[in-house]
Structure formats: C-alpha cells, structure tokens
Write a structure and sequence with these properties.
Order of helices and strands: HEEEHHHHHHHHHHHH
CATH superfamily of the largest domain: Cyclin-like
Number of helices: 13
CATH topology of the largest domain: Cyclin A, domain 1
CATH class of the largest domain: Mainly Alpha
Strand content: under 5%
CATH architecture of the largest domain: Orthogonal Bundle
Helix content: 40-55%
Shape: extended
Number of strands: 3
Length: 317
C-alpha cells in the first residue's frame, strides 16, 4: 500500500486523537509546519496533509487585551480601494511597545505618515475607486443598507471600472446605478426615487446608467416583486405582523390570477397593505401609505379597486 492510500485511511482521525501511527504503531508523530503535514517519523506515513497551525492558546479578559493579542487584522473588503490590505501609521506617537516616541524622531514619523498617505493612492484608477467607494459608503449609510449590499455594489462598480464603462459618465451616476443593481441582486429592493434622493444624481440618469451597465456587464437581475416591499412598508407604517401576513396572502392570490403583471410592484404592494390594514382594523389612510411607498393616491385607488373586485374582497369603508 502506498502513502497516498495509507493517508486516506487516517483522514477520518482527528489530530488530537492521533497518538500512534496506524501503520507501524509508532509513537513518534511529528508536526511539519512548513508542509502543513502530520508525519510518522518511524515509517514516514503522512497522517494528515491539511494540518492547520492553531497557534498558542491565550485568554483575553477585556477588549483591549484581546486587541493586543490578536494575530490578524480586519477582514478584506471591496468597499475600500486597496481592499483594506494596506498598512497605516497611527497618530498616537507611540511605538509597538506602547512607549512614547522621542521628540527628535517625531518629524521623521510625520514625514513617513505623509508619504504613506500619498502612496496609498498611486494612480488614476485608485483615485477613482477611492472617491467612488467613499461616495458609495455615504449613500449606503444614509439608506441604512446592510453590509452584503455594500460589498456587492463595490464589486459591480469595480467590474465597470475594469471594463472602462466610467468614461463619459459621472462617478456618482455609476455608483448610484451599482447600488441599485446590488439592491436588486441581494433582494433588498429600493426604488430609483430612493436611490436618487440619497445621491446627487437625478432618477433619469441613474436609470439610463443602470440599463447600460446591466447590458455591458451581463447582469442577470430578476424583476422585483411586490412581496419584497411588504415588510419594509409595514415596518415604516408601524403595522403589526398580522397585517404583513395578510398583505402577502392578498399578493399571492393576486399573483395566481395574474393581477400583478405589468403593474408597478410598489403600487401593488401599497394597495395590498392598504386593504390588509382595513381588514385587520389597523386602518391607514391612502395618503399615509402613498407617502411611504413613493406612489400617488390615485395609483393606490386604482390598484386596490382591481384587487378587491377580482379577488372578491369585501371592505367596509
């Protein structure tokens, strides 16, 4: 039996359980950290070829102690132009041991900080990314979007930069379009009006840039459904879970009868919430629902009449 066949037999045995070699019954088990292997010195059998160095065990009793003993930095992120992998010289004027740096060396340290700041952004592409990603972070923070949406938007923007789709377009417009596409991809839908309100770009330009980017980058995005907006609209209207469940139930019935196709998802969602709020005795006016959904009262009236008539829902107005 060759070493490869022998190692397969030992695959199911954990490192802590291995005290003797299963081949020669030897006890000289050695950890080869250079190769990442667990080897028997007596017969040469490789017991584990994916050995992980767990490092020394240590305990931390507060956050400061844990930070000092940590062996890793922040995780890699696409929302920073250098992916967060560059170093940074702090402003504390202290060395690695926590001792104050002598006054005679502080001028030199100041110069090092200045050049460190300059070389972090070395060319035009990095300058573009640095500005665009800070703008993206500002918009996402203002809209309260989660981390995965920001990372996805940063990836879409980086692809656009690599394909040279930025030329002739404003950075803010491409950033806003990337954020809109990321919201669609991550099933956290936001309307173009909401994106436009958070950015410095008009709705029309964002829509035009978004369509161009989806075509050039071949982004496969499914159209948003009214159900995607229900939880957020109900939360903003301070409606109970019962209203939310009833709204989704109405939308599923409408979807089965194909009442949602060809109509704006926000308008249909708003109408379903309006109907459900009346049925559950948590009535909200059409004006209140329209303001939250970003549609007009006329749209809600038209949609809710269609839904009540076609689904045979009786409402006491």
């Amino acid at each position: 039996m060759d070493n490869q066949g022998k190692s397969k037999e030992a695959e199911n045995v954990t490192v802590d359980e291995i005290t003797r070699c299963p081949e020669c019954n030897g006890t000289h088990i050695v950890r080869d950290y250079d190769r990442g292997e667990l080897v028997c010195e007596d017969c040469g059998l490789v017991l584990d070829d994916h050995f992980i160095d767990q490092g020394p065990e240590w305990r931390a009793f507060d956050a400061e102690q844990g930070e000092k003993r940590a062996r890793t930095g922040a995780p890699m992120t696409y929302t920073i132009h250098d992916k967060g992998l560059s170093t940074e010289i702090g402003w504390k004027n202290k060395d690695s041991y926590g001792k104050s740096i002598p006054t005679r060396n502080r001028a030199q340290l100041y110069r090092l900080r200045k050049w460190q700041r300059r070389i972090r952004v070395s060319n035009a592409t990095e300058r573009n990314l640095a500005f665009a990603l800070s703008e993206l972070d500002r918009m996402a923070s203002g809209m309260g979007l989660p981390r995965n949406v920001r990372e996805t938007a940063a990836m879409v923007y980086r692809k656009a930069v690599n394909k040279n789709l930025i030329r002739g377009r404003s950075i803010e417009g491409v950033v806003a379009a990337s954020l809109y596409a990321a919201c669609r991809q991550c099933n956290v839908p936001r309307t173009l009006d909401e994106i436009a309100a958070a950015s410095r770009v008009g709705r029309k330009e964002i829509g035009r840039t978004y369509r161009f980017m989806t075509r050039e980058l071949q982004l496969k995005l499914m159209p948003t459904s009214p159900q995607d907006y229900i939880s957020r609209f109900c939360s903003e209207l301070k409606l109970s879970g019962e209203v939310q469940s009833k709204s989704i139930e109405i939308l599923k019935a409408a979807d089965n009868k194909e009442l949602t196709s060809g109509r704006g998802p926000t308008g249909v969602a708003a109408a379903a919430i309006y109907i459900a709020s009346i049925l559950c005795n948590e009535r909200r006016t059409q004006r209140e629902v329209a303001d939250i959904a970003g549609v007009t009262e006329v749209t809600i009236r038209n949609r809710y009449k269609e839904l009540t008539e076609r689904l045979n829902i009786e409402i006491a107005l």
